[in-house]
Amino acid sequence: MPALHTVSLGRKTPGMIRSMTGYGRAEGRHKGTPITVEIRSVNHRHSEVVAKVPRALQAHEDRIRNLVQARVARGRVDVAVNFSGERDPGRGLVLDRALAHRYLDLLEELKQALGLKGKPDVALLAGFRDIIKPAELAAEDPQAVRAAEKVLEQALKALDRMRRHEGRTLERDLLTRLQESAGRLRAIRLRLPAIVQERQARLQERVNRLLESAGGGKDGVDQGRVAQEVALLADRSDVSEELTRLDSHLDQFRNFLRKSEPVGRSLDFLLQEMNREVNTIGSKVGDTAVTQEIVALKSEFEKIREQVQNVE
Question: Residue 268, CB half-sphere, CA atoms under 13 Å: how many?
Fold first, then answer.
């Protein structure tokens, strides 16, 4: 059994994410027989390769899957290899002359045996089985298998070009949304000092009202105690650690986008952590302006998540 010739299908383009969606097609010929390979890939949580091959390649189906998985690390990939020219009926047909002569001889014998008149014509002969049929490569022909492998390599390169092109589009969109998210985080960070001052003023006003209703005055207020309570409130609503971690997550996200290996799962994990930190900020701060920024951030993260679902 001939083995498929080894080809180099590794990733050579540094710093570029790939989409899981793509299409590649290539054609070739071997001894006049057309060879066509079509590859379609869509997003999928894992790697799944479904190969549809002719009889001549059924013994090599696992090897074909391995070649595809060497290039496509994640996603569902459908590979169709065609040897017979069925997609174009005018190509890849062979005439079995020896069989045609045999049919003709048998028809002559039948005519003489039954005393019939006339001569067999081309239309009659063409109607017999296997006189004209689609060409099909032989499984025992190593050159035919290598020819199919070369066409597969070309189709994989076409698929990779499309996946990289789609990846560039995804990267531009993701970087734009990351920039928007960073701006939202800066707005929250700038708002925090004002929140502390507003809460201190509200606490002071509340204490003054209580003292006045009790017949006391402002001089009876222990300013140190008020400052202590404000500090406690500020500590409970402090989100500096969450903001720092979010800044770190955004930096990591950008770094992953510069990698060439599959990063889809890593990006998905980062998004989960980013959503967790944002939810914590929203529950701690309880400020209207910050809440608006949190809602906008979560909306951006959801859009990012939808895009990440298609990153290999």
Answer: 11
